[in-house]
Amino acid sequence: MAKPSIDISESFASTAKISGDISQKDVNNVLQFLIGVGVSGHVPDQFDAKKDSYSDLVRDLLEPLHISRGHVTCLVSVKPAVINFFAGFHGGAVAAVAEAVSIACARTVMAKDKEIFLGELSISYLASAKKNEFFM
């Protein structure tokens, strides 16, 4: 089994089970990538302690353009907080936006006191929006 040859202080590196059929070079590349994207990074206290800060982040990306019964159209802005390692709109943020807009759409036809949730979501990623782009 390959062992990381680089000095890594992240706890995930020492506890990860590494398959024997992966080269040392590939192990190091994956670990460096994970470090680069901030895996196991510290979450600042103002976000860790605040309830629903993630929803605040998602809502900040949306500008409602049209709302009618069963239909919601929003302008989405790709802000630096939601870009991925490759400088594109993060796939998780895309899904979070889709969920928020779908729930907003459901709210146009359901009573406010009804509890709702998105039961299933499927997204095919064809191309990524870039930082500071807008789309509907």
TrEMBL record:
Family annotation (InterPro entries): ACOT13 (IPR039298), HotDog_dom_sf (IPR029069)
One Gene Ontology term of the molecular function aspect: fatty acyl-CoA hydrolase activity
Highest rank taxon of the organism: Eukaryota
Protein name, as recorded: Thioesterase domain-containing protein
Protein's organism: Prunus persica
